[in-house]
TrEMBL record:
Organism per entry: Heracleum sosnowskyi
Similarity annotation: Belongs to the STXBP/unc-18/SEC1 family.
Transmembrane segments: none
InterPro entries (UniProt xref): Sec-1-like_dom1 (IPR043154), Sec-1-like_dom3a (IPR043127), Sec1-like (IPR001619), Sec1-like_dom2 (IPR027482), Sec1-like_sf (IPR036045)
Region entry Disordered, spans: 544-589
GO BP term (any one): vesicle-mediated transport
PANTHER family listed in its UniProt record: VESICLE PROTEIN SORTING-ASSOCIATED
Name listed for the protein in its UniProt record: SNARE-interacting protein KEULE-like
Top-level taxon: Eukaryota
Pfam families the record matches: Sec1
Length: 659
């Protein structure tokens, strides 16, 4: 068997730094698909995948990319397929018994479905399975390639991936997890998929994990989840030294494994950044947003769909901006576009006779004009919808109270006043506020102390159960918040109940800009080598020294050095956002063309994995700190959850199902 390393054809063409998603995409397209285009096999091929690998592929590549590599047909392994005996097939599948049975059935006998088979497994193949393939004398001569791709993660962001364990919170932290076969299977698959990230990138990490304090003789299963996962990941990655050619022998990066309970506030607090607000406040299906446009025939409005993904330059630029900043920029972009684009200018000459030259310019600009206008219009529509929800739901006041609670500037009195004054507020928004209050003031929820407050908020017994479930999951760690763990430390003279302290050296640029997830401090502690050893164990024999600024000579962007900081009432345009000369009045503002420069001279990568779901605020922080620290930070998790998803999971843990 030819065991695949991470040698992508793409990387051999250039010594440029490849980001996480670029590497993933390159391996699938070049190392796998393109490598099958040999001298005796240049014809079109069939690509066959299972339900997991098709998702792996779709997260990194588009159908056009696959077609460009000589694929004319994509098939489901478990669907009835038409025999194509003159064509070769590429199998990208998991090494499972069911998949192997299907493959052998396809290629055995006198009349196989395909001429030749190129087999690529998404994760390591068990020896007994390999022996079974080699032992089938009718199939073996028809196999042109048999390799381990070691790529079984889902790259949902340029710096993020999931292992697709949406029920991890329930399976690993619910009642009976310690005796559940589900929990063991969940951890095993999760570890395998995390390990393939390092196989793909050829990175050998220092593996750290969060240690849960428990003075009892028998620690609970949920307190050992991070340790069990770290051990399984470490054992798998350690085998790569002998099975993957050119895999590093020494550590090249950092991996920190955490669980969701490092920060229970981040999943429920209202975030005020464009990406998070789109997924929190709008009715979106994954990354798909549906909106209405006037009908050209004058009838009922037509529904249109748009994907909010990196290939949309407006989304790419604004997704991590504060909603106030994003709204301002969109307004400026639209004004700039209409004033500079030739087609837009000529379009506005109502009643004026156009010269031949004007008409020529208009025709030349029109395709680009329509495309850009549509993209900008969609985001103006989205920002407008978000701002409408903010006004209708009174979210500014609620958001201010949430952040004041977190930073110790509000307490019981303010929460009671809010519930009294907002009896008709959304039940979900009230529950989210109650959860934040419970995390900051756990002692207020001992026994039945909070029953009157729950009644005042008009929250049901089911919602009360959700609050109790969250506090039970926090356990001892939650009660330490008032004393301060390393990440929750604060000046005790300032406030007894603050769950965060303000970031020093960073001015608040916009209203409701103050909140940040605990992960931001954790990553900065990790880079300084100051994670407490009693709270974070390292699997490696030798722990690394701190990397102050491993930038390969590049100067890191320092926090607190932003030019022209401004308040809600002030305006600023950062250098990277200033327009350059452009005829279309739009592309001048796009930053997408310059992203390749952002990753030059990078230091060692940092990988974070959160068991139980990550938030969009945590993903945003990884992008922010990548620029600041000049080290690519890749966030992995079992899933990425919006507040409503997370609350639904808490309800499942509470045994009450979805509301």
């Amino acid at each position: 068997m030819s065991s695949s390393d991470s040698e992508s054809s793409a990387s051999s063409h250039s010594k440029e730094y490849k980001t996480f998603r670029q590497t993933s995409r390159g391996r699938l397209l070049y190392e796998m698909l393109r490598s099958c285009r040999t001298e005796d096999s240049k014809a079109w091929k069939v690509l066959i995948m299972d339900k997991v690998t098709v998702k792996v592929m779709s997260c990194s590549c588009k159908m056009a990319d696959i077609t460009d590599e000589g694929i004319s047909l994509v098939e489901d392994l478990f669907r009835r397929r038409e025999p194509l005996p003159s064509m070769d097939a590429i199998y990208f599948i998991q090494p499972s018994k069911e998949n192997l049975v299907m493959f052998l059935s396809d290629m055995s006998g006198r009349e196989p479905l395909y001429r030749k088979a190129f087999i690529y497994f998404s994760s390591p193949v068990p020896k007994d399975m390999l022996a079974r393939i080699k032992g089938d004398t009718s199939v073996l001569p028809r196999i042109s390639a048999l390799r381990e791709m070691n790529l079984e993660y889902f790259a949902m962001d340029s710096q993020g991936y999931i292992t697709d364990h949406d029920r991890a919170l329930e399976d690993l932290f619910g009642e009976g997890a310690e005796t559940s076969r589900k929990a063991d299977m969940c951890l095993s698959t999760m570890a395998t998929r995390i390990a393939t990230v390092f196989a793909s990138l050829k990175e050998f990490p220092f593996v750290r994990y969060r240690v849960k304090e428990d003075n009892s003789a028998e620690p609970k299963f949920r307190d050992l989840v991070c340790k069990k996962l770290a051990t399984a990941v470490w054992e798998t990655i350690s085998t790569y030294k002998s099975t993957i050619p050119n895999f590093p022998k020494n550590e090249t990066c950092e991996l920190l494994i955490l669980d969701r309970f490092i920060d229970q506030i981040a999943p429920v607090i209202h975030e005020w950044f464009y990406d998070a607000m789109c997924h929190d406040l709008l009715d979106m299906d994954g990354n798909k947003y549906t909106y209405e446009v006037p009908s050209k025939s004058g009838g009922e409005p037509e529904k249109k769909e748009v994907l909010l993904e990196d290939h949309d330059p407006v989304w790419f630029e604004l997704r991590h901006n504060h909603i106030a900043d994003a709204s301002e920029r969109l307004s400026d972009k639209m004004t700039n576009f209409m004033s500079k684009n030739k087609a837009a200018q000529l379009h506005q000459k109502d009643g004026e006779e156009l010269s031949t030259r004007d008409l020529q310019k208009m025709v030349q600009s029109m395709p680009q004009y329509n495309e850009i206008k549509e993209k900008l219009s969609v985001h103006v529509e989205i920002a407008g919808q978000i701002n409408q929800v903010i006004r209708d739901e009174g979210l500014r006041d609620l958001g201010q109270l949430e952040q004041d609670l977190v930073f110790g500037d509000a307490g019981s009195k303010e929460v009671i006043n809010y519930f009294r004054s907002n009896q008709d507020a959304s039940y979900e928004f009230k529950l989210r506020l109650m959860l934040i209050y419970a995390i900051v003031y756990p002692e207020k929820f001992e026994a039945d102390k909070a029953s009157k407050l729950m009644q005042l908020a008009k929250l049901s017994q089911d919602e009360a159960k959700v609050v109790k479930t969250l506090l039970s999951l926090e356990g001892a760690d939650n009660k330490k918040a008032s004393r301060g763990t390393f990440s929750l430390k604060f000046d005790s003279q300032k406030s007894k109940h603050a769950a965060r302290k303000d970031k020093t050296g960073e001015e608040e640029q916009w209203q409701l800009f103050r909140f940040f997830p605990v992960l931001e401090e954790l990553i900065e502690q990790l880079t300084k080598g100051s994670l407490p050893k009693n709270e974070y164990n390292c699997m490696n024999q030798t722990a690394p020294a701190a990397q102050k600024a491993d930038t390969g000579g590049a100067q890191p962007v320092r926090a607190g050095k932003q030019s022209n900081p401004h308040s809600v009432r002030s305006r600023r345009t950062a250098n990277w956002a200033k327009p350059r000369n452009s005829d279309d009045g739009y592309s001048s503002d796009s930053v997408i063309g310059n992203t390749s420069n952002d990753f030059k001279m990078m230091g060692q990568r940092i990988f974070i994995f959160i068991v139980g779901g990550a938030t969009r605020s945590e993903l945003r922080v990884c992008h922010k700190l990548t620029t600041k620290l000049r080290r690519e930070i890749v966030l992995g998790s079992t899933s990425v959850d919006d507040p409503s998803n997370y609350i639904a999971k808490l309800k499942n843990l509470s045994g009450i199902g979805q509301h």
